[in-house]
């Protein structure tokens, strides 16, 4: 069966510090991968998606970037965090129409 | 602009009753529509998918309808239980790249 991991589970970072969130998928190959952000009480905002190694599409201009160095690894990064980057970050994978989400990372920028 | 609207932010119902959630969309022509459940602090979990040529889909106590003329989906939880308390999200896709657009969700609370 397939599993998806995200870490860390929670993170508190000062404004201006860098960020690296990691997502890995097990049990499948060549998945589509997605990064979402969910603000408190809001819906999911798609940030990035990837259909293959090194292929990244950005949905919203922002302070973040994504990379896919391996088939089942997806990384979300920032060089300098802003207060507005706080939120719940979710990674997801799909092979077709249904998406499967990881447990999420709660990021608080102070 | 494209928009997905889910009815009222919160729905409180008595155990055993049927909860009905609404998802309306504008400026989409989705090939299919999905419903997800999200518990606090957790990632969403897929529940049901209904395609544009399907009128209704059922899974245990869940039922989804899809009316492409009205641009609306209804999500029903029958014989609701306190364990059904969660936020329910509808999601649409319109293309071949499997990107989903999500509504803000409806939070359901089932009282014992």
Give a quick summary of the entry.
With 110 residues, chain A is mainly beta. Chain A has strands spanning 3-7, 10-13, 19-26, 32-38, 44-52, 55-58, 65-70, 73-78, 87-94, 100-101, 105-109. In chain B, strands 2, 4, 5, 9, 10 and 11 form a 6-stranded mixed sheet that branches. In chain B, strands 1-3-8-7-6 form a 5-stranded antiparallel sheet, with no helix packed on it.
Labels describing this entry:
heterodimer, A: 110 residues, mainly beta, 7-stranded mixed sheet, 4-stranded antiparallel sheet, globular, B: 112 residues, 6-stranded mixed sheet, 5-stranded antiparallel sheet, 0% helix, 56% strand
Mean residue pLDDT of chain A? 93
Compute the gyration radius of chain A: what is it? 13 Å
**What is the helical fraction of chain B, as a range of percent?**
under 10%
Distance between the termini of chain A: 38 Å
How would you describe this protein?
The complex is a heterodimer of chains A (110) and B (112). Chain A has strands at 3-7, 10-13, 19-26, 32-38, 44-52, 55-58, 65-70, 73-78, 87-94, 100-101, 105-109. Chain A is an all-beta fold. In chain A, the strands form 2 sheets. In chain A, strands 2, 4, 5, 6, 9, 10 and 11 form a 7-stranded mixed sheet that branches. Chain A has a 4-stranded antiparallel sheet with strand order 1-3-8-7, with no helix packed on it. The model of chain A has no long low-confidence stretch (mean pLDDT 93). Chain B has strands at residues 3-6, 10-14, 19-26, 32-38, 45-51, 56-59, 62-67, 72-77, 86-93, 101-102, 106-111. Chain B is built from no helices and 11 strands. In chain B, the strands form 2 sheets. In chain B, strands 2, 4, 5, 9, 10 and 11 form a 6-stranded mixed sheet that branches. A 5-stranded antiparallel sheet of chain B has the order 1-3-8-7-6, with no helix packed on it. The interface between A and B is medium-sized, with 24 and 23 residues.
């Amino acid at each position: 069966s397939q599993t998806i991991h995200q870490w860390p589970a929670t993170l508190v970072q000062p404004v201006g510090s860098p960020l690296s969130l990691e997502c890995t998928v097990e049990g499948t190959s060549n998945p589509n991968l997605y990064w979402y952000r969910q603000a408190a009480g809001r819906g999911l905002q798609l940030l990035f998606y990837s259909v293959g190694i090194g292929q990244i599409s950005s949905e919203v201009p922002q302070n973040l970037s994504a990379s896919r160095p391996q088939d089942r690894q997806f990384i979300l990064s920032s060089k300098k965090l802003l207060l507005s980057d706080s939120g719940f970050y979710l990674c997801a994978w799909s092979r077709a129409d249904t998406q499967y989400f990881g447990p999420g990372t709660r990021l608080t920028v102070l | 602009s494209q928009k997905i609207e889910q009815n009222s932010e919160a729905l409180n119902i008595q155990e055993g009753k049927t909860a009905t959630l609404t998802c309306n969309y504008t400026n989409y022509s989705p090939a299919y529509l999905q419903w997800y459940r999200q518990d606090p602090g957790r990632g969403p979990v897929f529940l049901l998918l209904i395609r544009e040529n399907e009128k209704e889909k059922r899974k245990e106590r869940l039922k989804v309808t899809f009316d492409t003329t009205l641009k609306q989906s209804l999500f029903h939880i029958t014989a609701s239980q306190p364990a059904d308390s969660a936020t329910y999200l509808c999601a649409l896709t319109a293309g071949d790249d499997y990107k989903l657009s999500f509504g803000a969700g409806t939070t359901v609370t089932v009282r014992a």
